[in-house]
Amino acid sequence: MNTKLYLHNTLSRRKEEFVPINPPHVGLYVCGPTVYGDPHLGHARSAITFDLLFRLLRHHGYKVRYVRNITDVGHLEHDADEGNDKIAEKARLEQLEPMEVAQRYTNRYHEALRQLNVLSPSIEPRASGHIIEQIALVQRIIDAGLAYQSNGSVYFDVAKYNELHRYGQLSGRVLDDLQANTRALDGQDEKRSPFDFALWKKASPEHIMRWPSPWSEGFPGWHLECSAMSAKYLGQQFDIHGGGMDLMFPHHECEIAQNVAASGSGAVRYWLHNNMITINGQKMGKSLGNSISLAELFAGAHPLLEQAYSPMTIRFFILQAHYRSTLDFSNEALQAAQRGLARLQSAHRALRKVQPAGQSSVEVGAIAQRVHEALADDLNSPVALAAMFDAVRIINALLEGKERIAADDLARLRVLFDTVLIDIMGLVDEQQAQGQAKLVEGLVDMLLGVRQQAKANRDFATSDRIRDELARMGVAVRDRKDGADWELV
Prior knowledge:
By secondary structure, the chain is α/β, with parallel strands linked by helices. The chain is 46% helix and 15% strand.
């Protein structure tokens, strides 16, 4: 790829040419979900944004180690330091082990992302599996003189850190201004300042999830896990850290402070943040009663929905807006996305019918260049899609005999759709996939019928051959008394 890649770095507040620390290797860390509830549209937007980045980096020839964490401990109800652990609270309500709750919603998250054709990360660490690394990180910050103990908990000293460095460099907030607009703490609070955040929390007697530490039996603060796990898998410095804009402050701001306190420098070179999804101008959220889960979207089972929307319609809807802009939900917008996606995929299928005819009267190269330049310009998927619709108009004109296309341009057009629509944007053709699934199912059932007849005729050689050939193709056959079951493995 000759096209340079530019990304909007939240830290510098400008678009920068992407230059990895150790080319062609790229370290990418993205904040994953807290697994105490069903995945919703907000989860989908973040996952699809960074899936697009992951795919585009690989298309540019980079070898990407993509780390996306699972938060299964330490994320509290009211804020980062106070309230009940969300997973433990759900466990109490449903009379389950906390890790049962975490596993249940992790499975649902994975299934929703599979339907959305989001690629799996290279590594998916859990906070609960990295307690040792988090304790070691807390100790390094204490040793640096930037954390203090209080009643068995450990807090980051933001004011002291701000004297040496700058707290607020990511979000642009100034600590003095924040303090001037904050009421004083009452005498019961463990923290010296309302801006100090927990590195380790002493567990109350009723707290279920707890681990031993040098300070108390307790659990790590929410911000700690990303600093510890990114360092473990990507090193003290890595290329890109991503997440939703709602995580910029305080979560990512606290990550930077932890990293600088522990190692002397910020770990991340490029910070990327996707914007939120709104409904009628309001942020989507459970507290506002307007949250829609992905399962409800796929089934059409929510009062705000007029119909069910397929996973690829949701993916296209999200890609129609730039990741840094707000995206407002409405049935009209989703229905328009459904129609737009159908046009793109219909044109892609129709390309098979187009035949070359002498010299081209269409300009394919310019469209391809516009598409790739838009994607390389801070993941500008809406501009790239607009150029793809110009390609759709060319295909329709070719089918109607109004334009001609040479063989090399036709090949270029087919590569453009295969590469951009499927490989980079991840927009698989659900209609085609369903047809192929039915074809596979029919063929396997037919072969198993032949195998059953062979067994009835005591032709075990043929029976075994069909079973073994299916196994080599990834079809596991399980015999039962009145036939056989099968599944893809």
